[in-house]
Each structure stands twice: as C-alpha cells, then as structure tokens.
Write a structure and sequence with these properties.
The chain is of the alpha/beta class and 588 residues long. The protein has three domains: 7-164, Roll (Sulfate adenylyltransferase); 175-334, 3-Layer(aba) Sandwich (Rossmann fold), CATH 3.40.50; 396-583, Rossmann fold (3-Layer(aba) Sandwich). It is 36% helix and 15% strand. It has 19 helices and 22 strands. A five-stranded parallel sheet has the order 12-11-10-13-14, sandwiched between helices. A five-stranded parallel sheet has the order 19-20-18-21-22, with helices on both faces. It has a four-stranded mixed sheet with strand order 3-5-6-9, with helices on one face. The structure holds adenosine-5'-diphosphate (2 copies). One adenosine-5'-diphosphate (ADP) binds at residues 407, 409-416, 478, 505, 515, 517, 551, 555-556.
C-alpha cells in the first residue's frame, strides 16, 4: 500500500510517495489466521524497530529488509540497487538452522512472541560482520557499540516482501507516537512549507532550546522535535526521562502552534556521517525539508585507542554533498555561548572581546552536578529539566557500579575481589559477588569452556550485573572473561562508560603457571584439559581498562586498596570513610 502525500516540494524519492506495508480489515483477518499455520522466528528489538520504520514509511522507498543487491550496493556506494541514495544496511539476520525447515513464507514475532509480520522468503544470503563494519561504520573496533553487537547477529540475511499485521504496541507516551503520514498531516495543519527537524538522543538544555527556536525562525517554518526512542547509544539517558523533559519543555517554553514533538522508533547505529544521511532521509519522509546537524552527529565516542571514531564535522560535510538529492537542506548547528553578565545566548562570532562566557559540558553535567547531587543552574537548563534529571540520577555515591575483574586463571582475581568486598563492607556497602568458578556451579552449571559456552557464561554474569547496577547496587565479577568483544558487550549492558570498571589483573602466564593453585596448568600442558586459557585458548588483553593491577609487585591488599582509591576518586565512595591501611591489617 502506498500513500500519496502533497506537502512540501516532492522532488526526491523520499516522502513523495510513502511506502506503507501495514494491512488492515478483512485481508488482515485472513492473514492472521494463516500466520498461525506458518513457521516463525523471533526478531531482535533492533529488527523490530527497523520493521516498524519499514512498515510506516520511515525508510521509504525501502520496503523490506535488504536483499543482497541492495545490501551490497548500499555498503559500497550508499545506494539501493535502483540507484536511490540510502546510507546504511537494514537487514534481518538469522542463523541458518532457524530457517532450515521453512517454506516460502515465514512469520516474524517479537520477543514476547507477538505476531508482527509475514515475510515472503525470497532471498537468503551470507554476510560478513567485519566487512560490514569496515564499510558502513568505517571501523572494526569492538568499542564501537554496533561492532560488538554485530558479531552476535545471525550468520545469514533473509529478505522478501513484507506484510505487516501489527505494529509494536506501546503503552508509554502513546500520544507522541505518530507515523510519517500523521506527522505530515500535523505539520500541514500548521501551514508552513518549511519544516526544520531536530534529531536528539539527549536531554534538552537551554542551548538546544535556543538553537531549535532560532533554526525555525531562520527558515520561517515549523519545528519538528524528533527524538530517537528506539535504541540509542548504550549508557544514554533513558527515553522515559528524556521524553518527560521534552514534553515539559514544549508545553512551557515553545510556541505550540508551530512545534511538533513526535517520537521516532529508530534503532540508531551510531554510524556518524552515514547515519546523518539516514537521519535526514527519515526526516524527509516525516515531512521536514530542513535538518539541524551538529558537531559529531550520531558519534559513538572514542575508540579503544582513545581517538574519536569520526571527525567532528565529517557528518556535516557528507550531508552537504547529498542534501539536494534528499531534498533536505542542512541547518548548521550554531555554536552558541552563554554570556554570563548579559544573561543571553549568542553565536560564537558575536561574543564581545573579553566577555565572560559560561558553559557546562555533558561530562560536567554528569560528574560535577548530578553525581554530586547538585541542581543544574537555571541559565544552563530549565528548572523542570534540572528536577527531572536529579530525580533520575542520584548522586554518584548512591549509584551502583560493577567491578569487572579479568585475567588468566590464577592471576589473583578472586583473591583481590574478596578483599575489595570486605573493604566495601567496611564502608557500609554490600556487594554481590559473581565469581567465575562459583557461578559455574549454579547460574551457569553445565556450561563448558568452548567459545560459545564461555560467552554464554560471561553474558549471564553480565546480565545479572547489569540488573544489580540498574538498581543502584554494587557487583563484583571475577571471571577470566578472555574475549574482548564479550567484555565490551557486558560493558554496554551494564551502562556505558561510567559504571563499568574493568580491572585487568595483569599476571603473566609464567607466574600463574608457577602458582598453579588448582593444578590445572600442569594438566593443560599434559593435554588433559583442552582449550585452556593461555595455553591453547587465547586470552585477549583489555585495550584500555579502567584499572590495571600487577600482582608480581603488589600484594593482594595493596591492589584492593588501589581499587578503593579509584572508587573514591570517582565519587562512588565518599572519601575518608575507609580506615584500613594498605596492608589490610592495621587500623587507625
Ligand atoms: P583467579 O581468580 O584469577 O583465577 P585466584 O585469586 O583464585 O585467581 O588465585 C590466585 C592465587 O595466587 C591465590 O592462591 C593467591 O594467594 C596467589 N597470589 C600470590 N600472590 C598474589 C598477589 N600478589 N595477588 C593476588 N594473588 C596472589
Ligand atoms: P571464563 O571467563 O572462561 O568463563 P571462569 O572464570 O568462569 O572463566 O572459569 C574459569 C575457571 O575454570 C578457571 O579459573 C579454572 O579454574 C577453570 N577451568 C576449567 N577448564 C578451563 C579451561 N579450559 N580454560 C580456563 N579455565 C578453565
């Protein structure tokens, strides 16, 4: 089904005609019955977001998960097989075993087994995560949130015509969830030809308010505040908090006759420049013809060597090249500064010489205000925003964290972890201990040491750890966790950068082997244990762990104290609460 739309200049393939895959009425009823007789697969939450945007026309003219020809050409040339610009792969991956017995149709279900769509199975093709990462993301570094996710996707992509029977059901902010056609119609009612869209995955502060209002005034049109609520960067402020902020701001501080706040169920890829192109294509479909694009758009932060994945203006430059083809004009994100004395925001170029300016970076918001329980100042953010954020983010010393020990068997992980647990108790902090050896006797009983089993074990530990931290608890994990990508995956599960503290117990193999407290190395050398870490299975050292411990020069108690010092320095523990000396015995 397609829907012809008339708003704006419809000179591009995007939004001129919206592809919509959702069927209704009698046809839907018949298909619902049929669907129950067909084999089905469950799709990931990312694929579900993608399916929704395919269904409602957000990715128009793309009308299916990509087939091989589209996929290959998008990877290499950023174009669908018919030549239409498209920035990133949209695929549905499965494991071959899942489709072995399947005929020509397959039902797609969500994680709770709700029926979503029927796919006409037309193509099955292999794909390679490394190639996709290199071409689409420009990096294969597992610190890139999509890279560490991709290696877990299914080994083949499936594609074919989609008939969507149900859209994902939402119970939150229902009134703000609209299809492209609904957004277009709201914008049309506002009566402006020009519409400027603003993409965001962060809370809105005064600076964003200023620049969105100025952008709308500049183009003489309406403003579409279009936050992503599908999947964003791990560790971002959750969408419930963000949407409460957006809604309050729009109601209290924006011209509601000229502003539409609508939620976008996109699963972001954090692909920087290419993602900027995808974002603008999507916004074109939702009826915008201008798009605000800033510094480091859709940037995933820094790679494992500490370098940003993308240059700060790469996204703007790439977007500029394709703007005409998409039919969306870039509105450069103005660099605004707050003049402390005059009490107003001005463009960087208009700051009088010598004038005092104030600014607070994102890191300072977290570290200097929220983590310390300080309310953000009114010049920086509206009081409503400050209050919502402070309720959601208690001070750092009331937040949870995960101490993740990694290192060879016998490195000293458990020994040091147990001392840390005691020192934390001394500070009045309970912790949950997830020791690799112990976990393998309950949570992970029956798992062995194949690559798959080790990953399952670590991901189980990671899952429990993330739940503990989410409830502001303290968790100490001590497992070899030999694979870097799996540790990075757990880092994401636990909540991005701050609350996951990776501790590399850097004891050389020779030392562990000499200690051989469990007598395992000697058996591994004799070949009695196969796939032993460090002997005939790899241990991938962390690239940039928060803490590195040397057990050949420091005692377990000294190393435990280093961890406590780190926690104090980062505000997780209030200083001076601990009285133990480094040797673990003396008291003051
Ligand atoms: P893992 O949990 O890493 O497999 P364990 O903590 O179970 O390792 O074993 C480490 C062994 O090494 C313990 O028997 C511990 O007493 C011994 N050891 C000797 N020196 C140190 C040190 N400086 N730090 C930690 N452990 C040490
Ligand atoms: P992983 O991170 O690999 O799941 P765990 O810390 O959960 O590791 O468990 C590793 C422990 O299991 C080691 O300390 C060792 O006592 C024991 N072990 C048994 N077989 C192996 C093996 N093939 N490789 C590493 N450790 C093994």
């Amino acid at each position: 089904m397609t829907e012809k739309l008339t708003q704006g200049e419809l000179i591009t393939p995007f939004g001129g005609t919206l592809v919509q895959l959702l069927v209704a009425g009698e046809q839907r009823k018949v298909l619902l019955e049929e669907a129950n007789t067909l084999p089905s697969i469950q799709i990931s939450s990312r694929a579900l977001c993608d399916m929704e945007l395919l269904a409602v026309g957000g990715f128009s003219p793309l009308d299916r998960f990509m087939g091989k020809a589209d996929y290959e050409r998008v990877l290499h040339e950023m174009r669908l097989s018919d030549g239409t610009l498209f920035a990133l792969p949209i695929t549905l991956t499965v494991d071959e075993a899942q489709i072995k017995q399947v005929g020509d149709r397959i039902v797609l279900r969500d994680a709770r087994n709700n029926l979503m769509a029927i796919m006409q199975l037309e193509e099955v093709f292999a794909w390679d995560p490394e190639t996709e990462a290199r071409l689409a993301l420009g990096s294969t570094d597992p610190r890139h949130p999509l890279v560490s996710e991709m290696i877990r996707w299914g080994k083949v992509c499936i594609s074919g015509a989609l008939t969507v029977l149900n859209l994902p059901l939402y119970y939150d902010f229902v009134e703000l969830r609209r299809t492209p056609a609904q957004v277009r119609s709201l914008l049309a009612e506002m009566g402006h030809t020009n519409v400027v869209a603003f993409q965001t995955r962060n809370p809105l502060h005064r600076i964003h308010e200023e620049l969105t209002k100025r952008a709308a005034a500049e183009v003489g049109g309406s403003l579409l505040i279009h936050p992503v609520v599908g999947m964003t960067k791990p560790g971002d402020v959750d969408h419930y908090t963000r949407v409460r902020i957006y809604r309050t701001l729009v109601e209290n501080y924006y011209d509601t006759h000229n502003t539409v706040l609508s939620l976008l169920p996109l699963a972001m890829r954090m692909a920087g420049p290419r993602e900027a192109i995808l974002h603008s294509i999507i916004r074109r479909n939702y009826g915008a013809n201008h798009f605000i694009i800033g510094r480091d758009h859709a940037g995933p932060g820094k790679d494992s060597t500490g370098k940003p994945f993308y240059g700060p203006y790469e996204a703007q430059e790439l977007f500029q090249q394709y703007a005409d083809e998409i039919g969306v004009r870039p509105v450069p994100f103005k660099e605004l500064l707050y003049l402390t004395e005059q009490g107003e925001y001005v463009e960087v170029t208009q700051v009088p010489p010598g004038a005092a300016v104030s600014s607070i970076s994102g890191t300072q918001v977290r570290e200097d205000y929220l983590a310390k329980g300080q309310l953000l100042p009114e010049w920086f953010t509206r009081p409503e925003t400050a209050e919502i954020l402070s309720k959601m983010y208690p001070p750092r010393h009331q937040q949870g964290f995960c101490l993740w020990f990694t290192g060879l068997s016998g490195a000293g992980k458990s020994t040091i972890a147990e001392i840390v647990a005691v020192l934390l108790l001394e500070c009045g902090r309970q912790s949950t201990m997830l020791d690799g050896d112990v976990v393998r006797t309950h949570l992970s009983r029956g798992l062995g040491f194949s690559r798959e089993d080790r990953d399952v074990n670590i991901l189980r530990i990671g899952f429990v750890a993330s739940e503990v931290v989410r409830h502001n608890g303290t968790v100490i994990c001590a497992a070899i966790s030999p694979y870097r990508a799996t540790r990075d995956e757990v880092r994401k599960m636990v909540g991005g950068q701050d609350q996951f503290i990776e501790i590399f117990v850097d004891t050389p193999l020779e030392v562990c082997e000499e200690r051989d407290i469990k007598g395992l190395y000697v058996r591994a050398r004799r070949g009695e244990i196969k796939g032993f870490t460090g002997i005939d299975d790899p241990y991938e050292q962390p690239v940039d762990p928060e803490i590195v411990l040397d057990t050949t020069i420091s005692t377990p108690a000294e190393n435990a104290q280093k961890i406590i010092n780190y926690l104090e320095a980062h505000g997780f523990l209030q200083p001076n609460v601990i009285h133990s000396q480094a040797n673990g015995y003396a008291r003051v």
